[in-house]
What does this fold into?
Amino acid sequence: MDRLNNYRQLICQVLEPYTQMKPANGEIEVYKFFDTVDDHYQIFHAGWDQHQRVFGALIHLDLINEKIWIQYDGTEVGVANELVNLGVPKQDIVLAYHSPFMRQYDGFAVG
It folds into this structure.
């Protein structure tokens, strides 16, 4: 299997369990968006917690230039750590939520 297809499969494998983690408060649904054609992957929440609207990403990843770009990670464990544990090299993961300058210090790819 080529590297991109492998990364697509690993991303879906890592993100799928988060679709089962419903927030404890409110009437909030968990949605997944896995675009395997344009390589955008999200888990997001939408709903209401009493009188307050809840909407936003829990996780957002993109595949860009054969690297996994973690645009947002609201998990405790860290999606990057889960991907590394599954064999993705750190040089193929970009922590895009860090500024381009700071990426040189995070131990992952800079871009």
